Amino acid sequence: MDAKPKEINEFTEKALQIVWDNGEESIFFYEELREICPCATCRRLRKKSRTGKLPFKKRIPLGKSSLAPERIEYVGNYAIRFIGENWCETGFYTFDFLRKTSVPGG
Asked: 79 forms bridges with which residues in the sheet?
């Protein structure tokens, strides 16, 4: 059985920590999570882009993490989504997807 989040914590202003129910921990940087948004629109934009990255136009002031979500919601029992100005409403991050893209922490 795949691990599910036991705790989701703000690690820093720019990063999120997930403690999985199997005891492992992962760190995710908001900027990287936003860049790999799994929704269909973002996947299409990345595919069209010359760099393979999302073509952001909005400037983010240095020293501020305006990518930090306002809140995080569970989607069923298989994913989470980030709610905020710079996040896609349809960007569901499945637990399996997050486990595959995580930076080990702790």
From this structure: 75, 94
